[in-house]
Structure to design on (312 residues):
């Protein structure tokens, strides 16, 4: 394109250079030549820039990293994807199988009497913006603080996944009774004052930049899935919680077939016993990952285990 764009200026240059000598002095001829050469140089440069910019503008952007199925446009498929996310992300583990609320703690002299809300009755009272803020920012539209809500993880959800999750939650018909307001016990109050327990809205900015290590585009899906699922128990960088959960580099010692049993059935190598929570999470949540997502998680954790120890 740059060559064709410069053809007309080249003809003008030829005209300038073929003026009869008897009609111009040597001084004017030299000056015309210099001017023409300058014009030609500018036009050639502009043509090259135009060609370069056209190449840049035609570059295809990288697709967003999402859970499989997030890019669907048909309404029913979008709702189905949102429903799957309520399982993968653990919504049903806290709010009950039908999302109608569940007793979380019943220790009046300990943590108190707290409930995971009945989402089918609570969400209709929220606008879409309020629901999004609750999920990804930890901000409740009515309560001052929101506790034990993993918004610090959900802030990393890609927009298409958030949209599908919100669409599904807003599509549910109200059922059951609204959950009671939480009554915090003395142990919960003491741990809140000490900073051991923090509200969701405080954890979101605190953990915004603390994610599992970036191992390159090849492992972005595995990193994405683990950052919004595994990180809930194994820490934001998957290094485990002392005395509770292990560093996930342990997955590097598993074959792909062994890892499949672990992540879908909660059965570790050597038929060792896992904590009941991990067994439950594997069967109810991680079994809902697609084969492609489970492949990506395994490849990511395997690569993570192979990195030198001095890399974060």
């Amino acid at each position: 394109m740059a060559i064709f764009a410069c053809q007309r200026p080249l003809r003008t240059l030829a005209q300038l250079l073929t003026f009869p000598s008897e009609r111009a002095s040597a001084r004017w001829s030299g000056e015309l030549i210099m001017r023409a050469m300058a014009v030609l140089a500018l036009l050639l440069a502009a043509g090259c820039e135009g060609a370069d910019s056209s190449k840049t503008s035609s570059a295809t952007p990288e697709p967003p990293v999402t859970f499989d199925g997030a890019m669907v446009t048909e309404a029913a498929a979008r709702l189905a994807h949102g429903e799957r996310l309520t399982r993968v992300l653990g919504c049903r583990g806290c709010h009950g199988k039908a999302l109608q609320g569940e007793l979380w703690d019943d220790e009046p002299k300990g943590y108190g009497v707290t409930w995971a809300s009945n989402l089918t009755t609570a969400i209709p009272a929220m606008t879409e913006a309020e629901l999004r803020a609750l999920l990804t920012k930890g901000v409740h539209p009515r309560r001052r603080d929101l506790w034990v809500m993993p918004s610090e993880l959900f802030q990393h959800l890609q927009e298409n996944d958030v949209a599908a999750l919100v669409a599904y939650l807003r599509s549910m018909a109200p059922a059951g009774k609204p959950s009671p307001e939480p009554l915090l016990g003395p142990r919960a109050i003491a741990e809140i004052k000490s900073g051991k327990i923090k509200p969701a809205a405080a954890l979101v900015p605190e953990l915004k930049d603390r994610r599992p290590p970036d191992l390159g585009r090849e492992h972005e899906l595995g990193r994405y899935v683990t950052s919004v699922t595994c990180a809930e128990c194994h820490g934001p960088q998957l290094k485990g919680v002392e005395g509770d959960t292990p560093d996930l580099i342990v997955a590097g010692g598993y074959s792909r077939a062994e890892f499949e049993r672990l992540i879908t059935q909660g059965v570790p190598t050597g038929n060792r016993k896992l904590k009941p929570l991990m067994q439950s999470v594997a069967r109810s949540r991680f079994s809902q990952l697609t084969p492609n997502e489970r492949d990506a998680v395994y490849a990511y954790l395997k690569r993570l285990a192979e990195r030198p120890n001095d890399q974060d």
Observations:
- DSSP finds 16 helices and three strands in the chain.
- The two ends are 48 Å apart (CA to CA).
- The beta strands are 100-107, 112-118, 183-184.
